[in-house]
Amino acid sequence: MRILIGEDEAPASKHLARLVREVKPSSEIIGIAETGEEALNFINEENPELIFMDIELADGPCFEKLDKVKISQPVVFTTAYNQYALKAFELNSIDYLVKPINKENIERAFEKLDSLRSRILEEPLVIAKELFNQESFKTRFLVKLGQRLIPITTKEIAYFYVADKLVYLMSTEKKKYVVNYSLSELEELLDPKHFFRLNRQYIIHHQAIRELEPYFKGQVVAKLLPNTEEQVIVSRKQTPSLKDWMGN
Questions:
Q1: 181 by DSSP, 3-state: which?
Q2: Shortest CA distance to 52 belongs to which of 99, 3, 116?
Q3: What is the C-alpha to C-alpha distance for residues 208 and 232, in angstroms, rounded to an integer?
Q4: Separation between Cα atoms, residue 132 and residue 213, nearest integer Å
Q5: Which of 72, 83, 214, 220 is surrounded by the most beta carbons within 10 Å?
Q6: d(CA 81, CA 75)
Q7: How far apart are CA 95 and CA 12, in angstroms?
Q8: Along the chain (248 residues), what's the average pLDDT of each consecutive run of 10 residues?
Q9: Helix axes of 124-132 and 103-118: crossing angle, nearest 10 degrees
Q10: Which residues contact 207 (CB under 8 A, 6 or more apart)?
Q11: CA-based Rg of the chain, rounded to a whole angstrom?
């Protein structure tokens, strides 16, 4: 199999090439493109059978270049972030690997490629969405504690809230951290199966809600864990959706 790698960092491209060769010894790395422009030239001239493409290349996001042409080859995107997954649907992507990448990630990507080939007559976008399933949503956040950066998984998050024009992450261990996202941005990044927007101030994880108390004219007060300093009031309009979400 003839494979193109798009990656602007030499250590990362060497690491990826090594993993690919371990998983598929018969594969041939036909080139390593450091820019989107180089990647397009390789695609047009060499016609690779599979592309591993870092989203952020030396000349900017690869989407800016790849959007200009029709990509017929399957693409495995690699990135340090996972908020680009939905955009990748549009570019014939079969997988979306968040760095650091290991051998199991590469094995999974090739398994998905085999699955795709066996179902080639099906609608491509439907297949792509099936293959991505849970990869579309953010699964961890990097927060700052003093001079250190700490990864926190979404399973460790109780809720996000707004206070003094800042957005905070409250962990299940009652620790809070500032995050550089608005609540609207977080709504797009978080899995709605696990997170719910209560109001303008709060997005909660399902494990954080302790109980609902009747309030005023159909509104409810959401009691959260860890406890909040203020009452968390949910509007009459939002309450039915909240109850449905809690029951599912």
A1: coil
A2: 3
A3: 12
A4: 38
A5: 220
A6: 17
A7: 18
A8: 93 95 94 91 90 87 73 83 52 76 92 74 48 63 88 95 95 95 91 94 96 93 95 95 91
A9: 150
A10: 158, 172, 225
A11: 22
Question: Where in the chain does DSSP place strands (E)?
Answer: 2-6, 28-33, 50-54, 56-57, 60-61, 75-79, 93-98, 140-145, 148-153, 157-163, 166-171, 176-179, 195-197, 202-205, 209-214, 220-224, 233-234
pTM of the complete model beyond 0.70: no
Domain architecture of the chain: domains with CATH: 2-136 (3.40.50.2300), 140-247 (2.40.50.1020)
Q: Report the DSSP pairing between strands 28-33 and 2-6.
A: parallel
* Conformational region of residue 146, where left means phi above 0, alpha means psi within -120 to 50, and beta covers everything else: left
